[in-house]
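FORM 7B: Structural annotation worksheet

SECTION A. Query
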Amino acid sequence: MIPQEKEYYTYEQWLSWDEDVRAELYEGLLIMMAPPSQQHQEVSIELASQLHAFLKGKPCKVFHAPFGVRLSESEDTVFEPDIVVVCDKSKLDGKICQGAPDLIIEILSPSTERMDRVYKYRKYQEAGVREYWIMDPILKVLQAGVLKDGAYIVKIYEPEDIAPVTVLEGCLINLKDVFAEE
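SECTION B. Predicted structure
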């Protein structure tokens, strides 16, 4: 099924759509997603590769878009973050993550910046996502938020930095490789 234009969708309707439909739900509102740019894909692949290499043989799992995250059963919101790390396997139902993942990474695009910086930021913080990274591939900046007492404490990293993943002890991301231009 392909969603038709209407005012409100439920989580159950979202589940029934064809796998090739790239769309998120924000409080029942349909948000169609454009294909990512080459630069977006390069950043995503490098981040996922570094995380995957670190997590090999460990209980946490890394997933990349499209992979659904439903933060709460009480509302019709399903996001498809660029990268997700889940350490509690009980949150994985074979299709999506049900509940707050440990780490979410969003890679900014001009069309998604407001959603990622404002709406998702708020939802992830309220849901208890322990760490939220916003990668800006154009400015080559990482905004890393770590949840403390219900709010994100944010630190900014630049391309020459090595960024620690706070929720994955010992995991360091080399941003020079993430932002490399080949």
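SECTION C. Observations
The first helix runs from residue 11 to 16. The mean pLDDT is 93.

SECTION D. Sign-off
Analyst initials: ____
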